[in-house]
Amino acid sequence: MDCFKVTILGCGSAKPTLRHAPTAQVVNFRGNLFLVDCGEGVQIGLARNRVPVGKIGHILLSHLHGDHCLGLVGLIASLGLGQRTGEIVIHAHRDAERIFQPLFDFFSPDLSMKVSFQSFDPGRSSVIYEDDSLLIKTIPLCHRVPTAGFLFQEKPRDRHLLAEKCDALGIPFAYFRGIKKGLDWTNPETGEVIPNKELTTDPTPSKSYAFCSDTMYSEKVIPIIKGCDVLYHESTYSNVDTLKAHLRGHSTSVEAATIALKAEVGRLLLGHYSSQFMSNEDEEILLDEARQIFPNTTLSREQMVVEI
């Protein structure tokens, strides 16, 4: 029930290499699967990680650069071949439907499932998904085209019930749900009010995960991701290539770490590596740079599973 994890399917940048696939991740929140970005090769990543693709209900596209969305047509086609039913909702910039719907119609004209688009404005933070326990909101980013990150935020949990105390007071089971939500209890016979703090303890802290790619350094994200447990922030280049990063609308490892530090996040994941990094040793440079600013930093890898 408490499952909240991220599986990295691809953490490379625009050019696929033998080491990294383009951007794609799966967020599993209590068994509900959300695909974040959908670069080329996403189906291979899903298969290698044994992700039950039939359970993916929502696909979130950060922006419409090819390395973040060109795997979408093939994925939808394969789901159609597998006779997937139900609905898949694609959350993206408004142009996504104009671009992809004709391709779905051409390659997958007889889909057994419903594919719908829900557009969002990348320029402002807004809630794009909500259920009883999870909220997803967009994070405006600064890239060459309209781009948004995503914050997965677990809603506040119920308070922990002191069952023995409740039993001793003769509180009927029917009242337990309200008490866990923070309500006091009034004894119907005596009128005595028992404060909630005497019947419960503090809830388990809720968790959150932020995905920020692609983007230049932007402190505008800090208030939105403040205090999140895990932050995935692109680090396409090392600090020596700061000018190149800015010209191309990307961040360096130092800039990613600076955002993590200022936002007081729990853990930083680096990713979206430039194809100029040809080895693990090259990418360790990114890690070393970031850890000098934010020690709890990790390099993302394909097939990595991160518990939030």
The SSE string, one letter per element, is EEEHEHHEHEEEEEHHEEEEHEHHEHEE
Number of helices: 10
- Helix content range of the residues, please? 25-40%
Q: What is the total domain count?
A: 2
Q: Could you name the ranges where pLDDT drops below 50 across 5 or more consecutive residues?
A: none
CATH superfamily of the largest domain: Ribonuclease Z/Hydroxyacylglutathione hydrolase-like
**Which radius of gyration do the C-alpha atoms yield?**
22 Å
Q: How would you sum up the global shape?
A: globular
Order the strands across the largest sheet as they lie in space. 6-5-4-3-2-1-18
Mean pLDDT: 95
Which structural traits does this protein have?
globular; Metallo-beta-lactamase, Chain A; 308 residues; 7-stranded mixed sheet; alpha/beta; 10 helices
Task: Give a structural overview.
- By secondary structure, this protein is α/β, with parallel strands linked by helices.
- The chain folds into 2 domains: 4-157 and 204-307, 4-Layer Sandwich (Metallo-beta-lactamase, Chain A), CATH 3.60.15; 160-201, no CATH class.
- Helix content is 25%, strand content 27%.
- It contains 10 helices and 18 strands.
- The protein has helices at residues 42-48, 66-69, 72-81, 95-107, 163-168, 176-180, 222-225, 242-247, 253-263, 280-291, and strands spanning 4-10, 24-29, 32-36, 56-60, 87-92, 114-119, 127-130, 134-140, 148-154, 160-161, 185-186, 193-194, 200-201, 208-212, 230-234, 267-271, 297-299, 305-307.
- Strand 2 (24-29) and strand 3 (32-36) form a beta hairpin.
- Helix 3 (72-81) packs across helix 4 (95-107).
- The longest helix has 13 residues, at 95-107.
- The chain is globular, with a radius of gyration of 22 Å.
- It starts with a strand and ends with a strand.
